[in-house]
């Protein structure tokens, strides 16, 4: 997952390997959609993935490993930079940039209008 730091996964995999050194670990890098399909098809036994766009397939047993906080990154001289918390309504009319390979890419686009906020054209949803 693009949002989980590699060090967190390394610590987890090291812990598994230490406790059960007879287990062979093979790492497959793919999108959340692809990993979900591979689990359903039986090509994978375990996967780390996130599907913010919808619930996982009911044939998959899932358990949370991490809780993450959504962050807004702004320049230090921005009017909102001194705030601890920023509400969605305060982002009204501001551009945003999506990370192209992130499972949350495109997630903010539908959230802002549902919260009554307008997303400007141009940089907003199409930026990578």
What global shape is seen? elongated
Q: Which consecutive residue ranges, at least 5 long each, have pLDDT under 50?
A: 121-128
SS element count, helices:
4
Percentage of residues in strands: under 5%
Number of strands: 0
Q: What structural class do the secondary elements suggest?
A: mainly alpha
**Secondary-structure element series:** HHHH
Give the fraction of residues assigned to helices: 25-40%
What is the arithmetic mean of pLDDT?
76
Whole-number tally of structural domains:
2
Radius of gyration: 18 Å
Terminal CA distance reads 17 Å
Largest sheet: none
What's a concise summary of this model?
The chain is mainly alpha-helical and 128 residues long. The chain contains four helices and no strands.
3D architecture notes:
With 128 residues, the protein is mainly α. It has 2 domains: 1-67, no CATH class; 69-128, no CATH class. The protein has helices spanning 6-19, 32-41, 108-114, 123-126. It is elongated and about 55 Å long. The model is unreliable at 121-128 (pLDDT under 50).
Q: Keywords for this structure?
A:
128 residues, mainly alpha, 2 domains, 4 helices, elongated
Task: Please outline the helices and strands.
Layout: H1 6-19, H2 32-41, H3 108-114, H4 123-126
């Amino acid at each position: 997952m693009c949002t989980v730091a590699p060090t967190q996964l390394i610590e987890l995999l090291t812990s598994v390997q230490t406790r059960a050194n007879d287990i062979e670990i093979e790492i497959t890098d793919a999108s959340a959609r692809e990993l979900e399909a591979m689990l359903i098809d039986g090509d994978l036994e375990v996967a780390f993935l996130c599907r913010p766009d919808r619930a996982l397939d009911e044939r998959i047993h899932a358990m949370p490993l991490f809780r993450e906080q959504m962050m807004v990154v702004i320049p230090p001289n921005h009017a909102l930079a001194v705030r601890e918390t920023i509400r969605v309504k305060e982002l009204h009319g501001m551009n945003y940039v999506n990370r192209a390979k992130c499972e949350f890419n495109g997630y903010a686009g539908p959230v802002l209008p549902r919260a009554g906020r307008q997303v400007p054209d141009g940089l907003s949803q199409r930026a990578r």
